[in-house]
Amino acid sequence: MTKKIIALDLDGTLLRSDNSISDYTVKTLRKVAEQGHQIVIVTGRPYRMSLAAYKRLGLGGPMINFNGALTHIPESKWAGELSMKIDKDFLFDVLDHYQAFETDFLASEYRKNFYITMDNRQLIPPEIFGVPKIIDKMELKPEKITRDPNALLMQTHAADKYLLADEIRQHFDNQLEVDSWGGPLNILEFSPKEVNKAFALKHLLERLRKSPQDLIAFGDEHNDTEMLAYAGQGVAMKNASDTLLPYADAMTKFTNEEDGVAKQLAQLLL
């Protein structure tokens, strides 16, 4: 069998709702890797928020963060690293429209740190930023923004985050990608134009001398559409958003709460 590249989204896909990965899933994915297949986390999450899952699975190769804006090998130097940035002027524009976008908080994300607005500090869950608590030095102030970020992360209290994402794309004349996170949080993430999970996977496959036909991708949300369409085999989770289904070749029989990824891979590869 041709050795596969297996791209795994995290929230709503590999992770259960409590952010855990079951022992069964870990054992199964390690068996898959032992067969020579390569597992790659491909997530909207920042690096620091996905490192625990990377280590739990015992991975050592590339990981893709920020919906494709950062392709790297954690804690290592790698010639294939690719870091895409958003012009910081877009960040200032979002701040100017903070109320119009019904924003709870906005974070400017970099590989190793972030800055976040704190007018609704009580609404910020520290765990989604991979830190034990939100402290004053993390506050987003315009004078701190001297570098272009990899991504912007926004929580909104809008009733329909998908409609708001469309409105924000239109506001920026489609010069930014705006996608929703999987899971229950009302989170939108902004990426550079034409940067998405498929963009990063194309770069990675070229580095690995693999083709899209060698790629199996699992996802559950809007930000997985391009990835599933690009993959030789795109698999939607049983709990996936209806928007994703037209882009999928198959659907898991089980949800993310039921080890859907692991059970599907066991059937396909073990």
UniProtKB/TrEMBL annotation:
Pfam families per the UniProt record, alphabetical: Hydrolase_3
This protein is called what? Hydrolase (HAD superfamily)
Keyword set includes Hydrolase:
yes
Alphabetically list the UniProt keywords: Hydrolase
The record's NCBIfam families line, in alphabetical order, gives: Cof-subfamily (TIGR00099), HAD-SF-IIB (TIGR01484)
Give any GO molecular function from the UniProt entry: magnesium ion binding
Cellular component, GO annotation: cytosol
Q: Which SUPFAM superfamilies match?
A: HAD-like
Superkingdom to which the source organism belongs: Bacteria
Please tell me whether the keyword Hydrolase is annotated for this protein: yes
**Gene3D superfamilies on file:** 3.30.1240.10, HAD superfamily/HAD-like (3.40.50.1000)
| EC number of this enzyme | 3.1.3.-
PANTHER family, per the entry? 5-AMINO-6-(5-PHOSPHO-D-RIBITYLAMINO)URACIL PHOSPHATASE YITU, PHOSPHOSERINE PHOSPHATASE
Species source reads: Streptococcus downei MFe28
